[in-house]
Every structure is written in C-alpha cells, then in structure tokens.
C-alpha cells in the first residue's frame, strides 16, 4: 500500500496577473506600497499544523509560507528553478548535480555547510512517509568541497533543481534531527509541556526514527519560537538572515480553519492578514483589502477506478457526462474560478489554450439508481458546496448519492485507501516539485503515492514515462500535455474548476507576497 502523505491543494500562476506587484528582495512578487514596518504582524492561516510542524508532510508548506524554511532552490514566476540556499548549480554526467552554496546561517547560529545540507537531504530520503517531492526518486547527497554539495539520483532526473525547491526538502540544521522528548518549541508551551493535543509525545518514534524539529533550526527570515497546539504560533525575526533583515519584528499566527471566522478576524481588526478568504466572504471586505491571485489549482472529481460502481468505465463515463462544471465556476465560486478544461489550468503559460480532447472513451451506461458515496473535506469552504451541487447533478443522471464531509486529516487516509466511490478535492498541480510530470506520476500512475482515483492504466504509465524522459522544458511540457490526455481518457478524474485565491490584507499592511504557487506569503518586505 502506498504511503499516506497529507498534501494541501495549493496554487500556481506562471505570470502574475495583478497590477502593482514587483519583485521582493528574494525575487518573489509582493504587494506594492510604502511603509516603515518594524512591528509584529498578526496573521490568520487557514490550515492548522497537522503533523507538529514536520517538514515532510502538509506542514512543510505552512512553514515555507510563514518564512521559516527554505530549500536549495525556489521557483520563479515562470516556473523555473532559481537560487535560494544554493547560488548556482551544474549538471554532471549521469544523475549527478553539483550545487554551490551561498554563505548563510541556520537560526541556531551554525553555518550552512555542505555537510549539513547533505545531512538534511539524507534525512528527507529516510523519512516515513516519504516527502511527496521524492516519489519514485532515489536520491543521495554528499559534501564535495568547501561550499559544494553533490546530489545524485539513481536515474537521470532533469527536474532535480525544480524538485529541490519543494517545501518538503527544506534544509534544517543538524540539531533539528536530534529532537528528544520535550525539546524544541514547536508543539510546546513556554514551560516545555506538550500542548499539541495529540496522543503521541514529541519524541523519538517507536521504530527509532527521530522526530524533526524546525523550531530555531531553519534558515528563513522568521524563526518558529513557540506554538500552542494547533491554534497559535509565535515567530520572531531571524536577524542573521542571508537575504537581509525582515521589516516585521515577528509574526503572531492564529490558525482559524473556519473561513467566515477567519474573515471576521480581519474585518474586526484582530488580525492584519487572513489567507484564503472564502469567495462567499470576499464581498464583505472593503475592496482595497482584497488580493486575488489566479492559480492553476484544480478542483476535480476523482472516481474510484478499482472498486465500487466506478470500476466500470461506462459508469465513470456516465458520471463525467452528468457534470456541468460551468455551473460550479459561476455559481459556487461566483466567478472567482475558471471552468475546468484539463488538469493544468489556464494560468500555466505552457498549458494556456490547450483543451484536451481524449478519444476512445467508452459509451456511458445509464446509472439506473446506482448507489455511491461522494466525499470531500471542509477545510476549503467551497468544496462541500461543490459536492452538494455534484450530488444534485449526479442524481439527475440516475445516481443515488450519499454525501460525506470531514476535516481533511480525517479524510485523506480513507480516500487513498479507496473507501469512497468518489472524492471532490482541490490539488495544486505544481506544489510538490514544480514539475508537471512528477505530479502526473504521483497522482495517476500505478505506483503513485497520491492516487485518489486509484488509476492504474498501462497507457497512462507509458505516457508519463515518456514525458519523464524529456530533458528540454518545452518538450517536457508537450509530453506532459499528452500524458494529461491519457489520464483524462480513463475518466478517473473529471476537472471541475481552476481556482483563484483570495487573501484579505489590512489597509496598513505592505509587502504581502502574492505567490501564485502558495509556497510563500510573508517575507522580508512584509510589514505594517
């Protein structure tokens, strides 16, 4: 059985479409405006830490969004890999790449050395479950000079610099991997008591694999100082950050899963910023506080292709024909989304204009009161409403639909195990690696680790493998689009909408990073 990994749907836009945006010191686009800065920022986040701030699961993106962690590379506005902790790199013969490190320090004061970097990447390769960015990849890392690290994969990987931009491959100090019970700030209060609210203590696991603590051991402009379970976190400015001193002296973070409550906190002045404002709440905010970012986040209907009614391709075809995605874009999302036309949305420049037309699909079979369970999660407030509309559309086509809504962390394991007939989920196609081929391999191949549709199709596997063999970016993108068509031909996934993300930003706040990948939100230029 594939390892279960929590992944949050996130976003991508290769060319930001907002006006008044320019490059921050780290190269990310941020909201224009002047401001003296210096004070603490109060931030409301949509997703609470699910794994005690482990860098290897869902919390990896949370850490990078709050400016805590960094990798060797990062993604630029065109979807390419550009320097972060590595200032340059070269490709060797075979599967080797050599990365030259910039001068930087960890938040515990120690130097970012080749040995430390190699150790961090090695720890990631041994993590269980494995980070999504390493799905299907055997990676080794070694120090090869005063400032150089060699990263090698078992087979040639043209996407390695993109892969190393993943938040789940953040570089932490050696101290992070020697966590013992009660150590570190994450998951503890000021006294060191465990306040995570989970059953297991923050200590070495039963199988001897140590927990990883990013508190005070990362390299970003803000250091995680203290948490209160899954409700609050305190971050302080890291004054020795290689990218320059952050304007804000720290962050006071609240995790508010309910979208209306999150928006109300901004409107009442309790917080300075609120991420992921529900579309139903956007109109309640003053227009100057609304920041909308077009993305390639795709919300889709995933049909269980291995068991239940949708194991029959003709029944899957009937479900696909029953869906009216345009009603979702204009209704549920109130125009803050584009009608789904593939796995890769129009925000991706290389996919813009592409409308896949899969051929060879089986004829639809009349549903005839076929019973099924449709599941989704409520962390993203639009998804339950999407599921309700789909329930009505499927019923009109003859299906008998039971709807189940849970919090995401309580849904994912059952969804991946095939315990539902269909799942509505939002997925950022570029979050894990920035590479479309890696996304397709993870989500739709027989060995994929996040295969909600449980697709296992030889034609899909061949198309994805062909795309993975292409080193040239343009050729790789063309092959990825061809593989997309093979995936859609299975009817295991029905694209619904390509979303836009709405952030609420207080009038006095400047420098919020409008990152279309949703890997960053707060940076050195963020202030009030």
Q: Can you offer a commentary on this structure?
A:
The protein has 528 residues and is of the alpha+beta class. The protein has 2 domains: 47-255, Periplasmic binding protein-like II (D-Maltodextrin-Binding Protein, domain 2); 295-500, Roll (Dipeptide-binding Protein, domain 3), CATH 3.10.105. 22% of the residues lie in helices and 21% in strands. It has 12 helices and 19 strands. It has helices at 59-65, 114-126, 160-163, 259-267, 279-282, 313-322, 325-332, 382-396, 408-416, 436-444, 458-468, 473-489, and strands at 21-23, 29-31, 40-45, 73-75, 81-83, 86-91, 96-101, 139-143, 148-153, 222-228, 232-237, 250-255, 273-274, 290-303, 337-339, 371-377, 400-406, 422-428, 493-505. The strands form 4 sheets. Strands 3, 10, 11, 12, 13, 14, 15, 16, 17, 18 and 19 form an 11-stranded mixed sheet that branches. It has a 4-stranded antiparallel sheet with strand order 6-7-9-8. Strands 1-2 form a two-stranded antiparallel ribbon. α10 (436-444) runs parallel beside α12. Residues 182-223 are annotated as: Disordered.
How many β strands by DSSP? 19
Mean pLDDT: 86
CATH topology description of the largest domain = D-Maltodextrin-Binding Protein, domain 2
Spatial separation of the terminal alpha carbons: 48 Å
* Fraction of helical residues: 10-25%
Query: What would you give as the CATH superfamily of the largest domain?
Result: Periplasmic binding protein-like II
> How large is the count of helical segments?
12
Total domain modules: 2
Which class of secondary structure composition applies to the elements? alpha+beta
